[in-house]
Amino acid sequence: MIAGTQRKYYMLGGKGGVGKTSCAASLAVKFANSGHPTIVVSTDPAHSLSDSFAQDVSGGTLVPVDGMDYPLFALEINPEKAREEFRSASQTSGGTGVKDFMDSMGLGMLAEQLGELKLGELLDTPPPGLDEAIAISKVMQFVEAEEYKMFSRIVFDTAPTGHTLRLLSLPDFLDKSIGKIMALRKKISSATSAIKSVFGQDGERQDAERMIKVRELFRDKDSTEFIIVTIPTVMAVSESSRLRASLKKESVLVKRLIVNQVLPPSSSDCKFCNIKRKDQMRALDMILNDSELMDLRIVQAPLVDVEIRGVPALRFMGDIVWK
């Protein structure tokens, strides 16, 4: 994973509460310590990345991580703040604020078309998937902006499974939306030439191209890898299996499954531990016999007796998980 200087993207996802953030943060620390300028981005509404690094990275901009010898920057995307911005944008200057907001996300033409079609009132409430759209706009910035060129590893700590799948399918959805709006524009412009001059095609094409670029990035097996994180319980393994099937459908490369919080072997006769260990063994067997998961490289991460918080703890975890 650390070989080569070509930029690589790693997306970590799975059920809520399995330790995705600790795994993502420890992977980012590992990359940075191996000489890769690294960014770790969290699209999870729970501010776990700040907790993981024991510093506030929730401002929506890149923050240098304390205690590192090499460049590591963290960024938490705040969906609630984005929703607030969206609401206030839709109430300013007769809805043109929405366009400015969408513009800043690189989706300006989409908003403009909607606005011209007098659909602005639909934008008063943030659309479903806005969180994911903002995450995607950040991905676009990383891909396109000159100031991010130096970063060779970008790690995404994604929100729980449902959000992640929406994030992956959103470029297709927006692509279709842009297509529909273009079709609608043609109908309207044939009816009235006054509107015809209002609509330009360049921006639309740019939006569509951007979406295609992001969609291709998610599916580019040379530069992007999705890592599923789970814990050894029947419920978590079942969800991981469904996630893998969905990712396969989206043509997203998955090579590794991290099984977190595995009880280490013990010679004590603690009854609770023995029952728990048997339970975990059943879940681990399930993985080995699951048609979606059995071909993945399975990495077991032990349950540790300290809270993984701050760079030294993340370095310790990274040495165990990312051997």
Element layout with pairings:
Layout: E1 8-13, H1 20-33, E2 38-42, H2 48-53, E3 63-64, E4 72-76, H3 79-91, H4 96-104, H5 108-116, H6 130-144, E5 153-157, H7 161-191, H8 193-196, H9 202-219, E6 224-230, H10 234-249, E7 254-262, H11 271-289, E8 297-302, H12 311-321
Parallel strand pairs: 1-5, 1-6, 2-4, 2-5, 6-7, 7-8
Antiparallel strand pairs: 3-4
CATH superfamily of the largest domain: P-loop containing nucleotide triphosphate hydrolases
Instruction: Write down the overall geometry.
Output: globular
Helix content: 40-55%
Structural domain tally = 2
| Class of secondary structure makeup | alpha/beta
Report the biggest beta sheet as strand number plus sense, adding barrel if it closes.
Answer: 8 strands, mixed
- How many strands in all? 8
Determine the strand fraction and express it as a percent band.
5-15%
Catalytic activity: ATP + H2O = ADP + phosphate + H(+)
Family: Belongs to the arsA ATPase family.
InterPro entries: ArsA/GET3_ATPase-like (IPR025723), ATPase_ArsA/GET3 (IPR016300), P-loop_NTPase (IPR027417)
Pfam family, one: ArsA_ATPase
